[in-house]
Each structure stands twice: as C-alpha cells, then as structure tokens.
C-alpha cells in the first residue's frame, strides 16, 4: 500500500469560510477552485504551475482546525490497515473514507489521481505540515498508530521531547508532526508553515489580516482572519529540515 500524495485541509467555520479562503490563497500563492460538496463546503487551493496540496472545508459546528488527506491506490486496503491499527471509520462514501485515529484526530483517504508536482516556496514560506495536538494519555498510542500506518515514512523523535515527526518520502508535499499537550483535552490539529524568515512572514500575514498570538523558540503562533490557529516555524521551506 503506497501513499502517492497528501493534502493539508484547513477546516474553518462556515460563517468565516470566505475570510479563511481569502487569507490562505494569498498566503500560499494560489487561487480557488469551484466549490464542491452537497453544501458547497469544499474548495481546493490551486497553484499555477504544480498540483494542489492544500484544501479548505467549511464546517457546520465547532471552531474547525486541520486534517490530512492521504491519496492512495487502494482505498479499502488503506482503511482496513488503519482500522487494524486502532482507527475507526466515521463515514465510507466509496470514493472517500473518513476515519478517526485512536487519539481522536480525523483524517481522510481518497484515490490517487496522478498528482506528483509539489508547489514551490511562496515569498519565503511553504505550508508543508499538519501538527496534531495530542493529550498526554493518548500520545504514545497516537505515535504508534501513525508510525505503523504510514509505511515508508520516517518516524522519529522531534527536536523537543513533546514532538514526534512522521516525515514522508521525498516529493510528498505535507508531513505530520505529533505534539504532546500539557493538558488533557480532545485531540486537534493545526497547519504549520516553514519559513526562511519568520518575522518577515509574520509581517506579511498580518497585512493579510492574521494576528500574532505567541512566540516560542522555533515557532510563532498566529491566528488567521477566520480565527484558526496556525504556526510559522523556523524550518527550511525548501527541505522542511530544522536550520542549524
């Protein structure tokens, strides 16, 4: 079973969906596709010279967040593997399977349609990571689940004890970071951008309507105009690696 492509999904409340789409298209140098879905809740962010790897979804309840989509050549096999490792199927639509990890994080699987060309860096930054924020009680199980499911990906400890990286093979556009929270609360996820200059990207995003939340060593927490939390990291936007 091979994962051929990955999508990062920005999930945002319906009432703030237009603001989210305006911001993320500007931040990623993309344009919007036509809206899709029964409630016109899905949209793809289309780059000019590569295959898309970012989508957005309007959610009907809650604050939203983020999730990963995995494009595979055998959807039933991927879903069955996930279930054997502890996930459960939330909805099987035939051409799309929605699942929930043992720690409670939603993710999806859909057929690979030939995507292969990764979008480039935009003004010194690249949206290239979904970070799943995991409560302490579920962290070990979540690390084991994702490490087992994503065969061929490199699973390794992160730069700090509370992080674990699951990095895809070269060419796939979105990687996974697991972060152990300091408190017990439901799992959630957010988007991360690798930045050549975090402060320059922060200033640009603030011009686009984002707000600064907090700064840490290695990342800066921001909030987009729809209220969604995301991070600007000091990783190299070309390679995704930590700069030394």
From TrEMBL:
One Pfam assignment: Glyoxalase_6
Domain Glyoxalase-like residues, every copy: 16-108, 129-233
Protein origin, superkingdom: Bacteria
Name of the protein this chain belongs to: Glyoxalase-like domain-containing protein
Organism ancestry: Bacteria, Bacillati, Actinomycetota, Actinomycetes, Kitasatosporales
């Amino acid at each position: 079973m091979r994962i051929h492509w990955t999508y990062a999904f920005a999930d945002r409340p319906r009432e703030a969906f237009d603001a989210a789409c305006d911001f993320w298209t500007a931040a990623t140098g993309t344009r919007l596709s036509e809206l899709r879905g029964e409630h016109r809740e899905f949209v793809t962010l289309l780059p000019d010279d590569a295959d898309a790897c970012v989508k957005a979804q309007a959610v009907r309840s809650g604050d939203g967040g983020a999730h990963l989509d995995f494009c595979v050549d055998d959807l039933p096999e991927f879903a069955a593997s996930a279930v054997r490792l502890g996930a459960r199927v939330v909805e099987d639509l035939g051409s799309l399977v929605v699942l929930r990890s043992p720690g409670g994080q939603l993710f999806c699987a859909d057929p690979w349609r030939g995507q292969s060309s990764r979008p480039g860096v935009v003004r010194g930054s690249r949206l290239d990571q979904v970070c799943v924020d995991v409560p302490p009680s579920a962290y070990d199980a979540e690390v084991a689940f994702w490490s087992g499911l994503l065969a061929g990906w490199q699973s390794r400890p992160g730069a700090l004890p509370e992080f674990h990286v699951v990095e895809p093979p070269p060419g796939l556009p979105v990687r996974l970071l697991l972060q152990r929270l300091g408190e017990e609360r439901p799992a959630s996820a957010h988007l991360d951008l690798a930045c050549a200059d975090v402060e320059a990207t922060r200033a640009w995003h603030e011009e686009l309507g984002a707000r600064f939340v907090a700064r840490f060593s290695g990342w800066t927490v921001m909030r987009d105009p729809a209220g969604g939390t995301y991070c600007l990291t000091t990783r190299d936007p070309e390679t995704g690696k930590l700069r030394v």
